TrEMBL record:
Subcellular location: Cell membrane
Protein name: MFS transporter
Transmembrane segments: 12-37, 49-72, 84-105, 111-129, 150-172, 184-203, 239-259, 279-299, 306-323, 410-433, 445-464, 484-502
InterPro entries per the UniProt record, alphabetical: MFS_dom, MFS_sugar_transport-like, MFS_trans_sf, Sugar_transporter_CS
Record keyword Transcription present: no
CDD domains according to UniProt: MFS_ShiA_like
Coarse class of the protein's main subcellular location: membrane
GO molecular function list: transmembrane transporter activity
């Protein structure tokens, strides 16, 4: 590969990756702020229900991704890769910015969650068209035999997008006071998106159409009806289904377990301070991200199947031991309390005349440096507790601040999960591109990817959180592991199908 062609492919990678990274940032800023958003756009009288509603809204963006894949995939195979993913970039950026402008539930009632849901659906449609276009565009510029390596750079953008979202949140929290962040500062990461989108749009305007698509279009070999040729043709449909159930489905649940469920688990099951979680997750992602390229390159040498199936198998076997270790690392039942340092405080906060909160705060210190804090809030009207179903209406929040040793233990355990992610996700773009011919590639590869990631993967945080919550309510002492059955079973099915039906050396490659 000459220096000139290397320079050319790097321009393609940079332009494509920057836009895709921004779209992932936009898409995941919602999940990164899920705990805060649940208090802004949903009724605050039931925090658990509000958080589950937020996760459901988060998942809704994933559910519509396959529809975005069909709509924009068709456009991409008819008018071209470049113009299609410029449209998706603007749609994503506009929806993200507007989410940051929606008034709270207290201001406009049910219109707040409705507006969030609509904009979240638009985000999902945009991302459904973005990824397939970017991956196809890069793959069609890459030299034969090196697609795994070059497309793996696109694969890093999803994790970098999440990483940047966490860093922007941390920076915003550092600049503002806790009260300012809670009141309006959480909106800043959404507003910042519009500037990033405009910069990326200008860069993408200067890009040329992919050479393979341009050649096919010049020769009159593009498809007049990509949807019919992709899914109405039994031969091609067989590969679409194999791509979905033999790879993308398992890859989707491994991706979201290692990054989003890990974050949700640390915050809502282990009760670790939100800023500490964002920081340790960011470090694990930073260390793990280069391995997307490593495993993309390796898949060029030993085949996509070998790398992806190994990642799935490791995840299936190790998830429960990893999460058991994570939970027990900070479990205060295994720590020694410094009894003389326990502090209890009671305050009253008046919200409006006759309505106030009675707040009881208890703080405990442990010999290893761990701090435990519990805040119980009881609603009062005219000085009397508000009753609901014969029970005093209250809200209890627990926050654990971990020590340095525990922090690095958790970073390592999350890092291992990120390695599983890089193994299954690094080669997936090249794998999908090589399964389908140029004229229907955008459409054919986008659907299995977004069903696998959008449906099977995107529903994971909500389903797994529900399973863990339900097990806890039923008195299961190992409730914190129950949410893992979903990714383990889905990845297990995908592993079996992939091992039996996928070819050993790369894939079909119709080219």
């Amino acid at each position: 590969m000459s220096n000139t062609s290397t320079k050319g492919i790097w321009k393609v990678i940079t332009a494509s990756s920057l836009g895709t990274l921004i779209e992932w940032y936009d898409f995941y800023i919602f999940g990164s702020l899920a705990v805060v958003i649940s208090t802004k756009f949903f009724p605050s009288d039931n925090p658990t229900a509000a958080f589950l509603s937020t996760l459901a809204t988060f998942a809704a963006g994933f559910v519509v991704r396959p529809f975005g894949a069909l709509f924009f995939g068709r456009l991409g195979d008819i008018i071209g890769r470049k113009y299609t993913f410029m449209v998706t970039l603007l749609l994503m950026g506009g929806a993200t910015f507007l989410i940051g402008c929606i008034p709270s539930y207290e201001s406009i009632g049910f219109l707040a969650p409705l507006a969030v849901l609509i904009l979240r659906l638009l985000q999902g449609l945009a991302l459904g068209g973005e990824y397939g276009g970017a991956a196809t565009y890069v793959a069609e510029h890459a030299p034969k035999g090196q697609r795994g390596y070059w497309t793996s750079w696109i694969q890093t953008t999803a994790t970098f997008g999440l990483f940047i979202s966490l860093m922007v949140i941390l920076l915003t929290r550092a600049v503002l006071s806790p009260e300012e962040f809670d009141q309006w500062g959480w909106r800043v990461p959404f507003w910042i998106s519009i500037l990033m989108v405009l910069v990326s749009y200008v860069i993408r305007q200067k890009m040329h159409e992919s050479p393979e698509f341009a050649k096919a279009k010049a020769e009159g070999k593009t498809s007049a009806n990509p949807l019919k040729e992709s899914f109405g043709n039994k031969y091609n449909l067989k590969f679409v289904l194999l791509a979905l159930f033999g790879a993308a489905m398992g890859q989707g649940v491994v991706w979201y377990t290692g990054q989003f469920y890990a974050m949700s688990f640390l915050k809502t099951v282990m009760f670790i301070d939100s800023s500490q979680v964002d920081g340790l997750l960011g470090i694990a992602l930073l260390f793990g991200t280069p391995f997307f390229v490593v495993f993309g390159w390796l898949s060029d040498k030993v085949g996509r199947k070998m790398v992806m199936m190994t990642g799935m198998l490791l995840a299936i076997l190790l998830y429960r031991p990893i999460y058991d270790k994570m939970y027990n690392t900070t479990n205060i039942e295994h720590k020694t309390e410094i009894t003389g340092q326990t502090i209890s405080e009671a305050t009253v906060k008046e919200n409006k005349p006759g309505v106030s909160d009675s707040i009881y705060t208890t703080t405990k210190a442990y010999t290893d440096g761990t701090m435990w804090k519990q805040v119980k809030t009881i609603k009062l009207e005219n000085g009397n507790p508000v009753m609901e179903g014969g029970i005093v209406k209250s809200d209890t929040k627990t926050i654990i601040t971990i020590n340095e040793t525990d922090k690095w233990t958790l970073i390592f355990l999350v890092f291992i999960q990120v390695i599983f992610v890089t193994m299954v996700y690094g080669p997936i773009a090249a794998f999908l591109v090589e399964m389908f011919p140029v004229k229907i590639r955008y459409t054919s590869m986008s659907l299995p990817y977004h069903v696998g990631n959008g449906i099977f993967g995107g529903l994971l945080p909500a389903i797994s959180t529900y399973l863990a919550t339900n097990a806890k309510e039923n008195g299961d002492t190992a409730f914190y592991l129950e949410g893992l059955w979903y990714p383990i079973i889905i990845a297990g099915i995908s592993f079996v199908i992939g091992m039996v039906y996928l070819r050993t050396k790369n894939t079909v490659n119709h080219d």
